[in-house]
Amino acid sequence: MPNPLGIAYDSTVDGFLSFAKPTAVIVVNANADAPEVQDARRAGARVYRYRRPISILNTVGPLDVEWYMGDPSKVPLWGNGRTNNTYSKMTDLRVGSVWVDYMIDSLERLILSDRFDGVFLDVLGCRPWGTNWTEWPEAERAEWTAGALDFARRAHELRMALNPFFDIVHNNIWQPDAKTPSIGGEQYANGVCIEHKFATSNGGPSFHAKYVGRQFAAGVTTRNLIIANSPADAANWAKVPGATHICAQAQYAKVEPSLVGYQDLRLPELQAQVEYFKAKATTQETRAKALEQVVVDITEDRDAAQALVEKYNSKIENAIEILES
């Protein structure tokens, strides 16, 4: 059975602590610095920081300035006047762009801050849906998709190196429709967010309901967030394998009362993840060496890599101690 999902993008924290229970997920944005965020985490909820990699808002809030390179005017744009809606401009998501490199650095700071349990990457997926995508030249579409996939890969590799218990959820899908194959971004995320899509179609499971039942990244807990169309639709989603967190919010300013009960899944989730890492490396030394190479590849700084290895292994060992106690 799924757990509750709450979305609160505005500065308000009204109703926030009603979600402060084990294994619930809350997505925050302008309220990210509110004390209630850490209160919810201490109570067992998982709090995700909202981030927008594919575009920049025309008006950037104060808590988003750091994400936008400390100065939104410095963020390189995609070009060709591309927008994904009326209130933002698309960013330069090309492979190896200055913007992508900066986002990876910012994600590293976010993970190491230990202030959130994951990141919610808006619109990252096979294509942007608010733009006139089908009118883009084929080469430009391919360039965008390659950039999105590469950023997803780099973000995933970074979190696996720094803290594999840090979740990454993409607010999009990597397969545009039932007739087109996925481009493979699922392997880089705990899961996706399905936003206002019905669980059923023509008396059976919908394309999106089938989609969340697939395999996502190895070694992490699956988190598929469902924003249903109504309480009735939420009840249908609650029966769908792979749907882990559900709400039916029509607005995202503040959380709404939960439609599903709470289940404390921390122990089985932890056990599954620890078993994965124990299988990947039979000794602490082997695990550390393998991890160090990944981190070096990312940071190219061996001293920093060693410090990260020690922090990472400490988290794993603490998890094993919990399971064996």
Which features would summarize this protein structure in a list?
single chain; 8 helices; alpha/beta; two-stranded antiparallel sheet; 2 domains; TIM Barrel; 325 residues; eight-stranded parallel beta barrel
Query: What Rg is obtained from the alpha carbons, in whole angstroms?
Result: 19 Å
**Uncertain residue segments:** none
**The first-level CATH class name of the largest domain:** Alpha Beta
Across the major sheet, the strand order is 1-2-3-6-7-8-11-12
Number of helices: 8
Give the helices and strands, then pairings.
Elements: E1 3-8, E2 25-28, H1 35-42, E3 46-51, E4 55-57, E5 88-90, H2 98-113, E6 118-122, H3 138-162, E7 167-171, E8 191-195, E9 200-201, E10 204-205, H4 207-211, E11 225-227, H5 231-237, E12 245-247, H6 266-280, H7 284-299, H8 302-324
Molecular structure report:
The chain folds into two domains: 3-264, TIM Barrel, CATH 3.20.20; 267-325, no CATH class. The protein is 35% helix and 14% strand. It has eight helices and twelve strands. The chain has helices at 35-42, 98-113, 138-162, 207-211, 231-237, 266-280, 284-299, 302-324; strands at residues 3-8, 25-28, 46-51, 55-57, 88-90, 118-122, 167-171, 191-195, 200-201, 204-205, 225-227, 245-247. It has an eight-stranded parallel barrel with strand order 1-2-3-6-7-8-11-12. A two-stranded antiparallel sheet has the order 4-5. It has a two-stranded antiparallel sheet with strand order 9-10. Helix 3 (138-162) crosses helix 7 and helix 7 crosses helix 8. The longest helix is centred in the middle third of the chain and has 25 residues, at 138-162. The chain is globular and about 55 Å long. The chain starts with a strand and ends with a helix.
